[in-house]
Fold these 2 entries.
Entry 1:
Amino acid sequence: VLSVAICPVMTHSFERKEAWKEGCLALGTGILYGATNALVGHPLDTVKAKMQAQTGFLKGADSTMVGIMKRIWRTEGIVGYFRGVVPPLLGSSVYRSTQFAVFETVFTKSKELGLDKAVIPGSGGLAWATLFSGVCGASARAVIESPIEYAKVKRQTLQPWHFNEIYQGFFVQWPRTGGMMTFIFCSVDTVRRWSDGKALSNPVGQFLTWGGCSMLGFWLIWPLETLKNQVQAGTVIEGIGTPTLRQRIAYLGGPIGLYRGILPGSVSVFLRNGTASIVMGYANGKLKEYGLR
């Protein structure tokens, strides 16, 4: 079924309608992307969160990826892998659809104004409009995502969350999400241009492109991901309730410790974004089939 009418997630290849219509269409298909992303990636994301932020999992015999996976299974069963899935399942559908809606709206408006032709020098053809649209989409996502990520991390680390703390860690969340998503939007667009659209014209290419670009984007901001999870979880460091970022880094063993959890996180990011892109691409194909794009 998925081999029929698969279209790119980012709709550069289509004849665009008005900016607000493109935003609405992306909002709808982005919900499918977000829900798929959350369901596919949550088990390994839980392992990553425990490795990065839960007291008792940071050091010791059970602090490796395999050790934590075994411990979750032994103490909590299958439910443990999906602990905290409700906030991101509902929230991911909202903030990921928002990122696509804002991106498509801004890019389409830039094209309407004739601002999509200016290219960033030395970028291999990347348009300023793509970069700016990516920043706008990523920033909109960060505002919505931060409370959801806070609630998710609290539940993953077996803690209650409190409404008056929902923007705890936003000072790390915004550069983390902004840098990651802007990179992903621009890199996927680069693959699209360099392959003349062929890399995104089939399910395998879609999966590999979005999975690979998303994983590279996460690698780029991974230290911020680790710090974000620690701040949102309220991880106590050697008896200090509110340690500084420098104290957190030192406790993790220096800068290299900031890459803790990168293996389960990378697998999770690759699988969930690759799978979600196929679902959203299929939805875009249906929109084209129905004459909505």
Entry 2:
Amino acid sequence: TLLKDVDYVMALEVETVSCRTTKGEIIVEVHRDWAKHGAERFLHLVQRGYFEGIGFFRKNHWIIQFGAVQHPQTGKRKKFSGMKTIPDDPPTDCGGECTKNRLWDGALAFAGGGKDSRSDQVFFVHHLGHQPIGGELWETPIGNVTHGMDVLKNIYGGYGESVNQVKIFQRGDDYLKEFPLLDYMLECNIIQKDLWSNLFLRGNSYGSTGTYDDYSPIFTMLPQVFIYVGCICTCLVSLCVYAVRKRNGLRKSQ
């Protein structure tokens, strides 16, 4: 089941995210235990539909970057304007599964440009080679591709570094139309586990520190909880009525 159009994430150490691209599907495991701030920000962006129709505007020999806001003044993109940056996460060895300060093929991390600079742009490593990627403050891994590395490698990279990010912010999709072969992230969704684990959710509008509108997500679940409880109560009442009527019928027959 895909979790979509909600304002919460499950308070689990690892979330599975399905991303559909113009070249196929990518499955990513996002780890709070590797990078709490980064993982929560990414998951909240997924929930809010931020990665719907986002171009893979940068692909060099090592990474594929996406996430630049393409509609800053209109529609659903407007609510992302003024998004605050999040604190850096400390270097991680991924619970003994990776080397600190070094990424790997399939790693997912935020792009940045200084201390506490992470916001909305992320990248996949598609071919690390001998590049020392992962040593910057913002490059703590937040996840890993578990399915779809072939999809990543097939993302069009002929434009290299020529797509101008400033012009993306200024002109949006009109500018990206100048790059007709560009591939896109069509949508990403959290793969939901079950209802009852969702009762222990936590989150906020943009995820992690440096955000606004913190709340207890249990309240966002109340309508669904009431529906489930109502159904259960209705079934129990119906069974009780049936049992009473059956018992009364037996008494009359005697």
